[in-house]
Amino acid sequence: MPVFSYSARDRSGVQRNDSIESPSREAAIANLRSQGLLPLKIAEVKNKQESSASFSWNPLDYRSIRPDDIEHEFHQMAVMLRSGISLLDALNMTARHCRIGARGTWVDLAKRIQQGSSFTDALSQHKIFSNFTIQLVRVGEQTGHLNIVMDQAAEEMKASRKLKKQIVSALRYPAFTLLFAIGLVVFMLTNIIPEIKKLLQIMGKPMPPITQALIDLSDWFLANGIFVGVFIGSTLFTLIALYHVPRTRWWMDRIALKLPIFGYVFKLSGTVLFARAMGLLLRSGVVIVEALETMEKLHGNRFMASKVHIARNRVMQGSSLTEPLETDSGYMPLLLQMVRVGESSGTLDEILIEMTDYHDELLQQAIAKLTGMIAPLMTIFVGGIVGFVYAAFLVAMFSAAGGSPS
Question: What is the pTM of this model?
């Protein structure tokens, strides 16, 4: 919020020189008059720190607002609110000290609040804020515990970010190794093996079967490599395009849950997401129907999201939450059993929070096992390719020299 320095006289005629925070010069004058002061001179104080913060040599500072910005700033705003600072002042301070690219969002939120909008409505005008965050803020405004729900929203963002990072990290190594192996094979088939072929042909002796098979594979790839590349590229493009079609994405997400090894990790991650988000929403006072609607939009797996949608409709008709989820929903069986217990005992939110911790630990173990298992397998795979080429070359050299590999 801008700061104005002023000179004013009080009722006794004594001149006072001080400063005041106010949204505008007119508001500052009105504030001074309400205190019984007669403004003589008033001017906005330019904040050097604020001016210098309007420029950065780091180009990343100019990126638009990101989820990790919201996570950090929500924590800071929660601290401000607990300290007695108003929401408008907290937003203005956040806009003053945040990253340059994110500043416009916080400034817009402050303007909407100043114009009389609720914080919930202001957030809903920006797509970067998830439905989960907006639901929590709505409850916080209604109950007067905005600082608590903002902390909870930030913690959920942090947990979701860590979960995504763990999944991506688990898949990054095998994906990189696979691409490396493909590149290595292509390089050998197009550069190394043709040179080996020339060398062996100069020797003029028949080649062993393993060497001949390798050379035949190289000749085939040189003749059809372009078509193979086009086929692989078009297949990947088609799969990506189909993944953006709602119906085919539903089937692809369903198949992903049934994959060996990886499917278990996907099920656990979906279970952790459901338990954590639903637990926080219910604990914050969101009714179960609205919580399920928010949960449906949070799920990245569209198959699981569709099951949540069905569950929401069934709950609106009087069904329990557990019953519609028990039929091939993708969630871990223990979660569903404990949800039934929570519904019966009236402690569903507490049960869900406990299940979050339990399944999150299982997820960490599953990711660690997956990473530990994939690393040696991919090493063996790449080593096998290189070993096969060297074996074929050495067998041919022994044969050409009239000896034997033994």
Answer: 0.67
